[in-house]
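Late entry, written up from scratch paper. The run itself happened at the end of the previous shift, but nothing got recorded in the book at the time, so transcribing now.
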Amino acid sequence: MITQHTALCGIVLHPASHTRSPAMHNAAYAALGLDAVYLAFDVPPQRLAAAVAGWRALGGRQLSVSIPHKVAILEHLDGLDETARRIGAVNTVVLRDGALHGTNTDWLGAVRALERETKLAAARAVVLGAGGTARAVVYGLQQRGAENARALADAFGDCRIGSLADLRTTPHDVLVNTTSVGLSSDVSPVDAAWISPGAVVLDAVYDPPRTRLLRDAEQRGAKAVSGKWMLVHQAAAQLEAWSGREAPLEAMAAAFDAA
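Output as recorded:
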């Protein structure tokens, strides 16, 4: 039962029709017996400042941040942890002592999803994209000791920047797509022939479950990792950030599938 004591959590994004975050988080709260509720809020860019001000006034405990707000929200927060500063993007806001603090769990979602299939130390990695998610994935790969053959944010000084076409001539052990290409459509951000056989390919796009990129990867002899696992693992880390409880991964994955 929702009462005046129920912790308010949620996600801001635009548009909001595709998100499965409420299903995952609410399933986790039920599994853990947490008195909390998680809602989705469709917030266009011009309303972000007002939305954060409202969240602050309401005393919301944990706010997830998705496209297109992961960079823009930085200026509306009271503080950032070192991870968020390094990445330059926030996907998680936690209320502590009346202040809104930003962190980033996207990198954990990506590396834990990839580590289901491979070890990342010394792996040659390519990240497709240039937004906040791409920056988080690059950070995560570096934390795990991967060699970034191509990176997309010059704030990461030991990485090189390239265009999508450069994949054709770039050997890689790991390929991660953080663009929206393939979302609810049957297209891929790269030509199938550019995918290295034997690589591990993660597509952050999770709708459809088997994107064109993942199907192409399998046909090239690469291992395909669904974006579902990146989303589940980053959501689990968000839950743990505000509640201090270990997230029930299986319950969250099942809720993702049922949503």
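Confidence is low (pLDDT under 50) at residues 152-159.
(Scratch paper discarded after transcription.)
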